[in-house]
Amino acid sequence: MKSLIILLSLIFIPKQCNTVSSNYTELQKRQETITITYQAVSRGFFEEISISSDSITISNNINRKNVKTYNSSIEDWNTCLELLSKIKINGLSILKAPTTFRYADGAAHATLIIKDGDKEIRSSEFDHGHPPQEIKELVEKLQSFKKLSSKQ
């Protein structure tokens, strides 16, 4: 009897805890509550790039001073949602980093953060510039927004 209860618990509980659907249609329905953030931190270095349905924010200061905010285009936002829909969001925390330079201060510690309403899901840490293959396209898209900051 105990083993039956344990088995049922293992099947049903993980599916209900902290789940965020990554279906593109579902993401579009909830797009007003979603924010996608790339953050990289090390001694003397900080970078945070976030996109939501209406804005892109870029900060190079850990205290979030001088945050630059830009309007996000529908195309950029939809591209990010499409890339997000290809990712198993609930598996972000167990992604394997392809490199480990950050362990010896060879690279900044980077994280992808998905906020959906009051839920926040963080990827496992990886080296800045070397994201896991599963999130590489989305991270590169987020980093492409840095050019907005350099234009002004």
TrEMBL record:
Top-level taxon: Bacteria
Report what the protein is called: Uncharacterized protein
- Source taxonomy: Bacteria, Pseudomonadati, Bacteroidota, Flavobacteriia, Flavobacteriales
